[in-house]
Amino acid sequence: MSYGIKLRIWGDYALFTRPEMKAERVSYDVITPSAARGILEAIYWKPAIRWIIDRIHVLKPIKFENIRRNELANRASINKKDMEGKTLVCRFIEDDRQQRASLVLRNVEYVIEAHFELTDTDDQNEGKHIEIFKRRAQKGQCFHRPYFGCREFPVNFEWCETIPPSEFANQDEQNLGYMLHDIDFADKMTPHFFRVLMRNGVIDCHQKVVS
After folding, report:
1. pLDDT band at residue 15, thresholds of 50, 70 and 90?
2. Which residues, 6+ apart, have CB-to-CB distance to 195 below 8 Å?
3. In terms of DSSP bridges, do strands 97-118 and 64-72 run parallel, antiparallel, or are they unpaired?
4. Is the pTM of this model over 0.85?
5. Which site among 31, 34, 139, 163 is 20 to 30 Å from 186 CA-CA?
6. How far apart are CA 91 and CA 118, in angstroms?
């Protein structure tokens, strides 16, 4: 029995930052598989399952827009005294603000096709997990609001039975270059990349992955 899911997601802005860009933020052309997995985990995550992204359907045209955003220039440092609760840990944006340009995606819409694998736990009821995810997605429930790369770009989502038509239907294959596939946290946080080939608006996330 198949335990795959389809989830339609959309939003006004998205920013999936390319790691090779140092100072300014530049987004990939489409959502990364790791970002898609994060959205599913925001809706339903359990130690008993591990989400695997199968395909990403790109429904809207790829459009970029330049914006400027306020960010903190530095991180808050925490030492032993801070951890003991003797010092208030905070940073004030007025004292540490910097403006950075970002090249973001505009008006995005995707459908995520994914399935989950069971991990080595006692909770092995596959049907229960898929029904819980479906119920939460249909009701708009989530552990925390999923976002498109940055928290100020929230994700709207809904359970999807059929995939809406794509703007890229009946188009030739497009090579979108190398993209981050995911990070292997079990192997010293090793990043894995893959070459994105989009056919008729569909990206197969099981294409050859390289470290």
Report:
1. very high
2. 175, 177, 178, 179, 207, 208
3. antiparallel
4. yes
5. 31
6. 41
**CA–CA gap between residue 59 and residue 170 (Å, rounded):** 13
Amino acid in the structure at residue 135: R
Give the tokens for residue 152.
Answer: 């100020």
Give the DSSP per-residue string, 45-113.
--TTEEEEEEEEEE-S---EEEEEEEEESSPPP--HHHHTTSS-----GGGSEEEEEEEEEEEEEEEEE
The 8-class DSSP code of residue 27 comes to: B
- Please state the length of the chain: 211
Place of tokens 């530049």: 26
CA Rg value for the chain: 19
Contact 155, 12 (CB under 8 A): no
Question: Residue 62 has which token pair?
Answer: 């790829």
Mean pLDDT value of segment 96-105: 84
- Domain at 5-210, CATH class: alpha beta
Interstrand relation of 64-72 and 174-184 (parallel, antiparallel or unpaired): unpaired
Pair 179, 17: CB distance under 8 Å: no
- Return d(Cα 56, Cα 39) in angstroms, integer: 13
